[in-house]
Amino acid sequence: METEKYSANIVKYIPFLYVVWADDLLSASEIAVFKKAVREDSLSKEERKLISSWLKTETPPLDKEITSWKHLIDQSGIKLVESDNYPLTSFSMKLSFRGNNEEEISNENLKFIEINLGIQPNHYRHLFDIQTRQSPKADFYDPEKIDGILKGEHAPHIDTFRKFLSDPLFQWEISRDKDTFRLRVLEQVKLLASAGYGAMAYEKAYGGIGNMPAYAGIFENLMFIDGSLTIKFGVQFGLFGGSIQNLGTRKHHDQWLKATGEAGILGCFAMTETRHGSNVRGIKTTATYVKETDSIVIDTPGKNDNKEYIGNALHATMATVFAQLIVNGTNEGVHAIVVRIRDEKGNLTPGVHIEDNGYKLGLNGVDNGKIWFKNVSVPRENLLNRFGNIDEEGNYSSDISNPNKRFFTMLGTLVGGRICVAKGAVGGTKLALATAVKYALSRRQFNSGEKVQEDLIMDYPSHQLRLVTPIAQTHVYHITLEHMIRSYSSSTEASRRKIETQVAALKALITDFSNKTIQECREACGGKGYLLENRIGDLKNDVDIFTTFEGDNTVLLQLAAKGVLTDFKSEFNSDSYGDILKLVGTQLSDRLATFNPLFTNNTDKEHLFNPDFHLEAFHYRVRRLTFTAASRIRRYVKKGIPPQQVSLNIQTHLIALGKAYGVMLSYEIFADFVKQIADEKMQFIFRKLGTLYALHHIRENAAWYLEHGYISGNKSKAIRQRVERLCTELRPHVVSLVDGFGIPEHCMTAPISKQ
Fold it and tell me: What is the value of pTM for the model shown?
């Protein structure tokens, strides 16, 4: 059929037909969308029949027919205007009227297709003659509304804090001398303390507002200023102050907490040792009670038993020291004792030796050091005695008789620090993504050879995949961590073991994600990303350590997996493996059934986008990994293999389970949150972000799902295609999504973010 014989009603559908047949993703659901529009349009019977004949995947239009559509479009002389609200609809109507449009013309049926098929300008940049928009911004989604959803009930605190960060002292600058850098960060910490931000999580009597979630939000936003400031702030008020708050009792609070919040006392958190980094229970520093002097003597027994990598060590006057508490010749396990390490003049107290860790890969504004103690005596009252006490008679007592339970209960009170580390990692990721996206919306490269203007790198599908996918993940992790900090803040000692398992998985999952994403942002910005002035380099170096402090990620994933295996009830290494198997096997054995081929081969858009499918896929992976791990334990136990060797034999299995559990937990929390969003427009975009998150992780573990018969090869391929398609659908809204992170303009200092 000659193109000039098409009626106006047919012509207006030709650009849409050309786009969908240029795309390999024409599914049954998308055909249904197209047919609905055609059915409701004012078309003749013949016109409706002709268009319908072009919507059959089994008999697609002939190549010469598609070529004729292209000829019609090319010869029209009409340009597609990217800045139009509905670019393809406007273009199609102009084409239908052959450009004779004195008034704005539109068509609701075409809009319906454009919206529901997610057709965006970046799908067809090279299919039409494009009038490039001058501004990269899209205003369909209000960034302030997105930011408001992310801030939640803490919005007043966060908004006030962001304005406070405009103080000149917080202006980011390149600092290559660690001593100068450290002094500047110290002044910043003191300024934050003077404004009450350090004490936010403390009770009102100690200068705070008793709001741990708001404090965690402040912590995340500090990453927009500098990683070193964020960590020193966390050490002073979160770790040192938090240890007094959570491990001490009222007498300790009255004595030290208010001054800590005001930075009148500078403190450090001396837990990690050179020889026993991740094994806190195995630390060698001793705290021996001496009845004759009613004191506790702190001692470092060997050269490599010193406290290592202690933040604030060069500035602090006090330290919370974790040591093996020995009372009347009995080792009562690890306890925390407050020790003065410097006098009022800044001189080290007798018996304390501190060395600077020196320059690090990042965070050089934090004064990390090594600390040795040689028979340093402190009053008995300096024992933080919430979970274990020495009375005036010199006798030890604890309300928790089991030493293992006491140890984990004590550490459970410090889980908030792991949540804050993960939130800090998310803050750094947000800044890196915002910088990379804004650069990608100004940087152009390559063209078709016919166009004068090169393409924006944000319009390349590969670039969308590398940036839009982590944007979706960042939103999911933000919501997840907000939920976890609220759960932690309202938890009881009985419920904290479960939260510890959850946070172990999430901290590992999120900090690993942040490191990979910041590196991706660096590469996405090319040489510009390598310049210090654009800040991605510092973010990369600063966040790198987040994977190993507050718990090494590999260790934390195993901790999370062991928590899953035992249903959060007891320690993996001390329990009966038979009991573990009985517990897990009872829950799971009846749910690992053969899959219906209709399910494993279902590639329909509605199915792939359904949250129920995502949840089932994540639940299945966790269930299967849990059951197979328990089965392996049983086989080894039957052979008489010692427990420690069993743990080593299944270590990689446990790590996979820990990761799967973190992914499942994040999506569960996010999916529940999205249901509560009242604004339908906002709920739609957040649901789409969740879909991208879910399909990305299923795609990332496609080999596993294929091995277990959960999905077919065709379904795996469809998921991969949908991930790519979702990235292009979200492309027009990418500015709104990163502006929705709420990064203040005075914190977006990278020159490439302002081009």
Answer: 0.84
Q: Could you tell me the mean pLDDT of each successive run of 10 residues in the chain, 755 residues long?
A: 69 85 70 86 87 84 84 81 76 76 64 77 64 54 95 95 96 93 97 97 95 96 97 97 95 97 97 85 94 96 94 97 96 96 95 97 97 97 96 93 84 86 98 95 67 69 93 98 94 82 96 98 94 95 94 92 70 48 49 69 92 95 90 85 88 96 98 96 96 98 94 94 92 93 95 84
**Is the distance from CB of 507 to CB of 559 less than 8 angstroms?**
no
Nearest to 119 by CA among 239, 184, 22: 22
Burial class (CB in 10 A: 0-12, 13-18, 19+), 693: buried
Between β-strands 267-270 and 295-299, what pairing exists: parallel, antiparallel or unpaired?
unpaired
The domain segmentation of the chain, as residue ranges, is 2-124, 268-409, 417-745
301 with 372: CB under 8 angstroms?
A: no
Cα torsion 42, 47, 50, 54: sign: negative
Catalytic pick among 220, 332, 550, 724: 550
**Rounded Cα–Cα distance for residues 441 and 452 (Å):** 18
Give the 3-state secondary structure of residue 118. Answer: coil
Distance of CA 681 to the CA centre of its chain: 24
550 is catalytic: yes
Alpha-carbon distance 201 to 509, whole Å?
Answer: 25
268-409, CATH topology level: Butyryl-CoA Dehydrogenase, subunit A; domain 2 (2.40.110)
Dihedral angle of Cα 723, 506, 147, 738, to the nearest 10 degrees: -40
- CATH fold of 417-745, please? Butyryl-CoA Dehydrogenase, subunit A; domain 3 (1.20.140)
